[in-house]
């Protein structure tokens, strides 16, 4: 899948620029038929021609700038656009006879003003936008005022004014909503990317943590040959897990796993420690493969911690299905030196391989320890559905 | 009350020669290479620290295993097994034969000494692997007379927790917990000695005859 090369915000801005360019092109087409007639009927043909040329230049110029930059032209262009529109409305009071000021077949100024009002969709600052809209409205009032000769003429004049005051804000608000949606989408995409990156970093740490601890133990020259042989066997198994991570192979060791068998198997990898496995009460508790893999990694991490730091005379792994049959628990206890069991003191193994990773599987980790009194870690899960099986 | 007197039966010459120096807080009255020698001399001792594997090239016919435990107990001694044996059914069979303690030779000298002295005071000492079997018997209804507190203590001991740790989680003093444990182990000891291997096999979910090779022929009285 090709990576996205632009933000949703920029796509929204491009859409607004295309909208502005489109509406200005449509206005040019709408104005074109009025030109010969307007020049013929006016008392100031040169001024009318200059007005028409100015309008054409602004319509096309801003459309081209928007298309080229792929975003609204910016505040400078917007102010200039409104200034020209206001000037054309004022000049129109000379060049366009009052009876010809409504309808693009004669006077283009009102349609042009609406087009400019809609072209302010890209204006970023609310105050500037409101001032520009009000300036346009005031100029329009000035332009149409001479056409009102009684109450009967008011609806047409007011209707034209309201068209500008309705379409202008409508397009501007729509553009704001579109840009906000773009921002939200970008934030969501950024959040998803951050979560994915953090997830990958966490998986990488999980993959290498136990291997790192084993390397440290292997580097310990004081270990006897029997211990080193066991460490080599564990390191080989850990290397296979790391290779599976690097190759992208799913970390699944097989089908469902018996909790007692899993605990016994992990315990047997650490026979160089004074370790007792008590798992009779966990026989028949089935774990789904992903949970079994993560639980095994967590137990290995705990036992490596004991190996490296605890100086324990006795280590016990106890596994059981709860008395009520609604879950299971694994307890890892050592009578070693202990530590201050506050989350800030947890290393990568305890914090990420044990607590964080298992919590994603619905397993809660409870760590109690005091200096001199050993350490107890209880991993506890409740069945999502009955049937003696972890789902 | 006099200090407990210990005798040791072990086929390792070096261990017999050094045990008194290794555990200076204990009073050893004699050491022996075989149960037969112990029973012939009948030393004045309260507790016999007994190795399980005693037959070797010099004494191929020496009594050993659960049979040796039964012989020493029959002679009136308390027995604490001190062994490298780790098969928990074998260790449980020693308790069924009447031993009051099972201590691993892999234990530190401090832990071993504490265990021997506890046995001398009448406590039942067993490793977590065997305590786990007792927990299974209690959970499956074979041991029905345990109180909730005794079950709590049993569960904690099966997880390897010390009395200090249990005291913090159960909000009871260590001496109270030791009392629960002593009452509990008395019942467990009586149960193991009075129950047939077949009943224990069923309670543990084992197959018929799985215990027969290790269990004492005749439970201790």
UniProtKB/TrEMBL annotation, chain A:
<feature type="transmembrane region" description="Helical">
    <location>
        <begin position="12"/>
        <end position="32"/>
    </location>
</feature>
<keyword id="KW-0812">Transmembrane</keyword>
<keyword id="KW-0472">Membrane</keyword>
<keyword id="KW-1133">Transmembrane helix</keyword>
<dbReference type="InterPro" id="IPR036890">
    <property type="entry name" value="HATPase_C_sf"/>
</dbReference>
<feature type="transmembrane region" description="Helical">
    <location>
        <begin position="44"/>
        <end position="67"/>
    </location>
</feature>
<feature type="transmembrane region" description="Helical">
    <location>
        <begin position="79"/>
        <end position="96"/>
    </location>
</feature>
<feature type="transmembrane region" description="Helical">
    <location>
        <begin position="102"/>
        <end position="121"/>
    </location>
</feature>
<feature type="transmembrane region" description="Helical">
    <location>
        <begin position="128"/>
        <end position="145"/>
    </location>
</feature>
<protein>
    <recommendedName>
        <fullName>Signal transduction histidine kinase</fullName>
    </recommendedName>
</protein>
<feature type="transmembrane region" description="Helical">
    <location>
        <begin position="157"/>
        <end position="179"/>
    </location>
</feature>
From TrEMBL, chain B:
<dbReference type="InterPro" id="IPR036388">
    <property type="entry name" value="WH-like_DNA-bd_sf"/>
</dbReference>
<protein>
    <submittedName>
        <fullName>DNA-binding NarL/FixJ family response regulator</fullName>
    </submittedName>
</protein>
<dbReference type="InterPro" id="IPR001789">
    <property type="entry name" value="Sig_transdc_resp-reg_receiver"/>
</dbReference>
<dbReference type="InterPro" id="IPR011006">
    <property type="entry name" value="CheY-like_superfamily"/>
</dbReference>
<keyword id="KW-0597">Phosphoprotein</keyword>
<dbReference type="GO" id="GO:0000160">
    <property type="term" value="P:phosphorelay signal transduction system"/>
</dbReference>
<dbReference type="InterPro" id="IPR016032">
    <property type="entry name" value="Sig_transdc_resp-reg_C-effctor"/>
</dbReference>
<keyword id="KW-0238">DNA-binding</keyword>
<dbReference type="GO" id="GO:0006355">
    <property type="term" value="P:regulation of DNA-templated transcription"/>
</dbReference>
<dbReference type="GO" id="GO:0003677">
    <property type="term" value="F:DNA binding"/>
</dbReference>
<feature type="domain" description="Response regulatory">
    <location>
        <begin position="5"/>
        <end position="120"/>
    </location>
</feature>
<feature type="modified residue" description="4-aspartylphosphate">
    <location>
        <position position="51"/>
    </location>
</feature>
<dbReference type="InterPro" id="IPR039420">
    <property type="entry name" value="WalR-like"/>
</dbReference>
